[in-house]
TrEMBL record:
Residues 133-271 form the SIS domain. Residues 3-79 form the HTH rpiR-type domain. The keyword DNA-binding applies. The keyword Signal does not apply. GO terms for biological process: carbohydrate derivative metabolic process. This is Transcriptional regulator. It comes from Jonquetella anthropi DSM 22815. GO terms for molecular function: carbohydrate derivative binding; DNA binding; DNA-binding transcription factor activity. PROSITE patterns: HTH_RPIR, SIS. InterPro entries: Homeodomain-like_sf, HTH_RpiR, RpiR-like, RpiR-like_SIS, SIS_dom, SIS_dom_sf, WH-like_DNA-bd_sf. The lineage of its organism: Bacteria, Thermotogati, Synergistota, Synergistia, Synergistales. Keywords: DNA-binding, Transcription, Transcription regulation. It comes from the Bacteria.
Amino acid sequence: MTQNVTDVIRSRYGKLTKKQRLTADIMLADPESMAFMTLRDLAAAAGVSEMTVLHTCAALGFENYNQLKYEFRRYLTLKAKVDIQEQCGYPNMEVPSYELSEPAKLMAQICDEEAQVSRGFFESVGPVSLLHAAEMIVESRVTLMAARGVSMQVADFLSMRLAIMGLPAVVMNTEQNDSLHAALPLLGKGVALIAISMPDYYIMTTKVCEFARRQGASILGLTDHLKAPIAQYCDLLLTAPTATRLFINTIGPMLSLANLLSAAVNILKSRHAGKKFDAPVQFSKLFSGDAE
């Protein structure tokens, strides 16, 4: 297909029936959701039957609904790559010339600012909220983590901690289409999603939260602000400051938050020790001949 899916819809819009146009309007208004939306949900959103949606797909030149969703996923992947380049996603963060006359003084100021941020974080973190978040993880069948960019470092760290404790965890890189769509089918009741989102807030991470909410998963958000885009979908939100003078994010406080969360998980897990958490122990017994 040479045209992207939104261009195809616009080019054939005039030949659609009234009900088919209602369906097309939903597609054009929210292409991000179309990557995940089920046939039933789209029909409900447009106020039409599922058969009308299928007829709309045919009128637009698609063999079936899955092919349409595939084209929306392809469109979003290409759009994300273009957006990163247009926004200069990895700019050279040069220090202004007026700050360079006394480098040692500048470094001292930065160290002091980082120390103040860390002190403020540890003074404000809530033990009860951490234990509540840990409970969401311990009680879930599996924990999924959605992140991208610098947030992936936090996700990988937390995933490693959960693995050590015998808790199943899957990391989803929301910038990578294969990683994203391999993990989406896991979302549902009994599953905990940890969404890690820091400025710039990546839309696909937010959309994963929206999809997880529809699927009935419990959602824990780790972000820098109570009004971050993922907040509206989260059952619980934990925050850590990320603003820094030289870069868009500082990872220190967020890693500290992940470290405290893993400690809270260990506390609750230790109180409910049992076969649910002993997979690493049972696996190690395979090498000693002690397996049950």
